[in-house]
Specification:
It contains 7 helices and no strands. With about 170 residues, the chain is an all-alpha fold. α2 crosses α3. It is elongated and about 65 Å long. It starts with 12 loop residues before the first helix and ends in a 16-residue tail after the last helix.
């Protein structure tokens, strides 16, 4: 996290909250609604902890409230698991967002590994995979086309290639 460059363009609190709402939610579902955010903040709050209404969450996200109270920011930060400074300091928000991207990328790679492990549980898939070793790139592309044709003929979904992670030097 320490090697991330600070964000060059200042962003509004609304933009930062929008980012959190879009990016931080349980796998397999869309973003939390304003009501869910407010309800969960209220449910998790101890006596004296700040809470927010769903209307406040919406007003902050849409920019109707441009200078929300510290308690509202503290409640939202706690809900999303970020420091309150995320909303106020562009360097902090840049570092937090870089970390969120890293975590999401790691999760995607783990999911891809799980998919591969599941596929390799099938003895026939394993047998085919082992026989591919040593074939030329041209042969592998041809086999890939054949496999894609069979998948389509059997009504199976298209397999999206995993993005490879490039390291910056």
């Amino acid at each position: 996290m320490g090697d991330q460059a600070p964000t060059t363009e200042p962003r509004t609190i609304a933009q930062k909250l929008d980012y959190l709402i879009r990016e931080i939610h349980p796998k397999g579902r869309g973003p939390f609604t304003y009501q869910e955010i407010a309800d969960q903040i209220r449910q998790r709050a101890n006596e004296g902890d700040p809470t927010v209404s769903h209307g406040t969450v919406q007003a902050i996200r849409t920019g109707k409230v441009t200078n929300p109270g510290v308690d509202s920011l503290r409640a939202l930060a706690a809900f999303f698991g970020v420091p309150t400074a995320y909303f106020l300091d562009d360097t902090v928000s840049g570092a937090v967002e870089a970390r969120i991207r890293e975590i999401k990328q790691s999760a995607e790679q783990a999911d891809a590994g799980d998919e591969l492990a599941d596929a390799l549980q099938d003895r026939e898939v394993r047998a085919v995979a082992f026989r591919l070793s040593g074939l030329s790139a041209k042969s592998l592309r041809g086999i890939k086309g054949i496999v894609e044709g069979f998948r389509q003929a059997e009504g199976l979904p298209e397999v999206k290639p995993q993005r490879t992670r490039r390291r910056r030097g």
